Amino acid sequence: MPLVTTTEMFKKAYDGGYAIGAFNVNNMEIVQGITEAARELHSPVILQASAGARKYAQAAYLKHLVEAAVEATNDEIPIALHLDHGADFDICKDCIDNGFTSVMIDGSSRPYEENIEVSKQVADYAHEHGVVVEAELGTLAGIEDDVNVAAETAQYTDPDQVVDFVNRTGVDSLAIAIGTSHGAYKFKPGTQPHIRLDILADIVEKLPGFPIVLHGSSSVPQEHVKTINEYGGALQGAIGIPEDQLREAAKSAVCKINIDSDLRLAMTAGVREHLTKYPSHFDPRQYLSDGRNNVKVLVRDKIINVLGSENKA
Ligand code: G3H
Ligand code: 13P
Ligand code: ZN
Fold this sequence. Notes:
Blueprint: H1 7-16, E1 20-24, H2 28-40, E2 45-49, H3 51-57, H4 59-72, E3 79-86, H5 89-97, E4 102-105, H6 112-128, E5 132-137, H7 149-155, H8 162-169, E6 173-176, H9 197-206, E7 212-214, H10 222-230, H11 243-251, E8 254-259, H12 261-277, H13 284-307
Parallel strand pairs: 1-2, 1-8, 2-3, 3-4, 4-5, 5-6, 6-7, 7-8
Helix pairs in contact: 2-4, 2-13, 3-4, 5-6, 10-12, 12-13
The structure holds glyceraldehyde-3-phosphate, 1,3-dihydroxyacetonephosphate (13P) and zinc ion.
C-alpha cells in the first residue's frame, strides 16, 4: 500500500469511535519508533512534518524516511504523510507537489475572512491533486487562570462559525481550539487540567459526520519528566492533557489527535538515562536505541489507551 490520504482513515475512525494518532517526525529513530508500534498493533497512523522538521532534516530526507517506513512495514498499515501547520499557500503547494497526501493550512491567526480565503485556495489546489486539507479555526493557547471567562471563551473555536467556514473553504477536516495547547507546559501547576468537551459537543452538533482535529494533545507523561529530571534535566511544572479526556474526544468526532511533545520527552528521557548510566558510551546507536525504544513504547500506549486505533488497519 503506498502512502494514503486520510479520507478512509477518518471515515472509519468517525464511525468506529476512535482517533488516528498524528505524530510529528524529525529523524529516522522517531519514524521507526512510531511505525514499528503502529505495525505491531495493526493501527493506521499519520506521520506529520512541520516547517521546522523540514528545515532540520531537509524535506527530501523526511519524505524518503517516511517512504522507507512504508516499505519496512510491508504495506501492512495505512500511513499518511501530512504537512503540520502550513503557514501559507506556497508551503502547502510545495508539499502537495512533492508527495504529501495531506496538508494543513493554518490560517488561525489571520482574520476570519482571510483564513477562509487562504484555506479555500489550498483546498482547491489540493483537491485537484488528490490531496486532502486540514484547516484551523480558533486560537490554540495556554489558558491563564487569571483570564476572565469572556476573554477565555473568545480564544476557543466559535461553534457558530464552523458551518460557514467548512462550507466556504471546502476543507476536509477542521482543527479546533477547546483548551489544548502546544508544548509541555499546558496548565499552571495547582490548576485543574481540562479541555472543553462541551464546546466540542456543540461543534459536532453543527457539523455532524465531519472529522475534527485536536492539536496540542500531548499528555506529558510524568514518568518521562521524572526520568529527565533525575538524569540531569530541568523540567519544572510540565503538565499535559489528561488522557481520559482525550479518549472521550476520540470517541466523538475527533478523528486526528496530534502528538509531538510526548515523543520529545520519551526520546530525551531514554537518551539522558542511557548517557548517565553508561558514561563510557559514545556510539550514537547505543543511546539513540534507548530513545527510539521509548518512542515505540509511548506510541503503543497512545494507540491502546488514548486513540483506540489498535487493529483498525
Ligand atoms: O505544532 C507544533 C509541533 O509540535 C511542531 O513543532 O515547529 O518545533 O517542529 P516544531
Ligand atoms: P503537543 O505539543 O501537545 O505534542 O502538540 C503537537 C501538535 O499539535 C503538532 O501540530
Ligand atoms: Zn499543532
